[in-house]
């Protein structure tokens, strides 16, 4: 339990610092690399939450595929890779109170709702077979809908990005 | 481990993502902030899955990851199209619907 707490707090600090750097850094490529820190930390937190298959999917899909997409997007929309001055808009200062209000509202609601309730100490990792039984059993219709969403996204992205 | 420590970490990441969506001008950086928000939602789903001892949260987290992949694909396609037509991806300059 102590080891899990230490791991949680190290990961939490790394994730928060990385997230703050994603939204404040002046370099788009650095923002993408800080996002890798946050997403890797999230994958490690999923392991702490006994969700190994989701953690593995997070690494494969987010860090493997989505980050490559982001770096390609950065490369194709910008000749210059380096520091920039105009990444933030004029509403930047408005964003701070908005974010703080959102955070305060959620923190109060979570504290009132869950207090110091503990996670079950004896939780076993959920086997991947159980997850697949869920996907192909009670959640089959959302799975089909998701297949159509992915197909539409692939076709739509090709149509949007075609030259002619 | 408390339930709340995971939920509050998710809330902090969500708030940082909201700040990024409000404050950033570069469309690619806005998409990255949306990824932060989706990631915090996944953290909440898995914390609740562990609390209830079922695998439903895992299923939903996998669906969220798939939707995020589709969203980034279409979003970056749109950003590329905007860049090709306007030579800029600043969301401040896409103001033709502004009265």
What is the fold's blueprint, element by element?
The complex is a heterodimer of chains A (164) and B (99).
Chain A lengths: L1 H23 L3 H21 L3 H25 L15 H23 L13 H8 L4 H22 L3
Helix pairs in contact in A: 1-2, 2-3
Chain B lengths: L2 H21 L3 H26 L3 H31 L13
Helix pairs in contact in B: 1-2, 2-3
Q: Mind explaining what this structure looks like?
A:
The complex is a heterodimer of chains A (164) and B (99). Helices cover 74% and strands 0% of the residues of chain A. Chain A has 164 residues and is mainly alpha-helical. The relative contact order of chain A is 0.07. Chain B has 99 residues and is mostly helical. Chain B has a single domain, classed as Helix Hairpins, CATH 1.10.287.3510. The longest helix of chain B is centred in the C-terminal third of the chain and has 31 residues, at 56-86. Chain B is elongated, with a radius of gyration of 17 Å. At the A-B interface, helix 1, helix 2, helix 3, helix 4 and helix 5 of A face helix 1, helix 2 and helix 3 of B.
Keywords:
heterodimer, A: 164 residues, mainly alpha, 74% helix, B: 99 residues, Helix Hairpins, 3 helices, elongated
The average pLDDT score of chain A comes to 88
Largest sheet of chain A: none
Number of strands of chain A: 0
What is the rounded Rg of chain B? 17 Å
Q: Over the alpha carbons, how many angstroms does the gyration radius of chain A reach? A: 20 Å
Structural class of chain A: mainly alpha
Number of domains of chain B: 1
Poorly predicted regions of chain A? none
Largest sheet of chain B, if any? Answer: none
Q: Biggest interface and which pair forms it?
A: A-B, 87 and 70 residues
Do you know the CATH architecture of chain B?
Orthogonal Bundle
End-to-end span of chain A in angstroms?
59 Å
